[in-house]
Amino acid sequence: MYCSDYHTHSQLSPDSTAPLEQMARAAAEAGLAELCVTDHCDLLSLYGEPVDRYDWPPALAQYQEQAARFAGTVTLKLGLELGMAHLNPEASQVILDRPELDFVLGSVHNLCPEKGGTDFYYVPYPDSQACYAALDDYFTSMAALAATPYYDVLAHIIYPLRYMEVPVSLDRYSARIRAILRTAVENGKGMELNTWRGRTIEAWKPVLALYRECGGEIVTIGSDAHVPEGVGKGVREIQGLLADCGFRYVCTYDRRRPVFHKL
Ligand SMILES: [Zn+2]
Ligand SMILES: [Zn+2]
């Protein structure tokens, strides 16, 4: 089993304080072959203010130092989690114009600007009606993002569910999710299985079924760890689920190209 964690954050993300060295050490201890650091670059801030640049020099310096240090132990890759790229294609193009970049997660973390642009983490979900209103907005943004070239895989397609404590079902979104996944497949892009530090495994089954219907084959696996203790959490279990759902490969990336590893 080729184990990789392709969604992790370091101190260069606003919501993490972990040096990349600690994340890489945790990856080695968890027996991972590869770790991709995917720090945040969101084109909308947590409260909806527009952002149009990314500070690459510290990210490159941190990555180059640790990649050399861990060479032969765990392969480090340089990624980025780019949020809401569809809102600003020009900025996205400039931000991603980096030959050193291995991998880009495409994310939707916020309501659309017309609805305030707040991160789904801060949206109140008092009842199922509020949840579905947020999900309606979410999947509209996800469809717009999927049609852009500014990502390699769509990150955590079921993201807002993390924060919803009333029961919601994605059944009513099946057709929309299928269309989003089809767009990704047609553009040579993939989807991510995000374990959310080991907490989300089974919930991916219906999404994987839709992805298979679309002929999707590119799947990366990530824990979304923001601390060393989270690195690799759920990676092996979800790889088992991927195989059970009829998939043959898990992917890593090298300079924005997928590398297929047999399950
Ligand atoms: Zn995210
Ligand atoms: Zn993340």
Description:
The protein has helices spanning 20-29, 56-69, 89-95, 128-146, 174-186, 205-213, 235-244; strands spanning 4-8, 34-42, 75-83, 103-107, 153-154, 190-194, 219-222, 249-254, 257-262. The protein has 263 residues and is α/β, with parallel strands linked by helices. The protein has a single domain (4-262), classed as Metal-dependent hydrolases (TIM Barrel), CATH 3.20.20. Strand 1, helix 1 and strand 2 form a beta-alpha-beta unit. Helix 5 packs across helix 6 (205-213). The chain is globular. The termini are close together. Residues 7, 9, 81, 224 line the site of one zinc ion. Residues 7, 9, 81, 224 line the site of one zinc ion (ZN).
Concise structural overview:
By secondary structure, this protein is of the alpha/beta class. The chain is 31% helix and 19% strand.
Question: How do the strands and helices of this protein lay out in sequence?
Answer:
Elements: E1 4-8, H1 20-29, E2 34-42, H2 56-69, E3 75-83, H3 89-95, E4 103-107, H4 128-146, E5 153-154, H5 174-186, E6 190-194, H6 205-213, E7 219-222, H7 235-244, E8 249-254, E9 257-262
Parallel strand pairs: 1-2, 2-3, 3-4, 4-5, 5-6, 6-7
Antiparallel strand pairs: 8-9
Helix pairs in contact: 4-5, 5-6
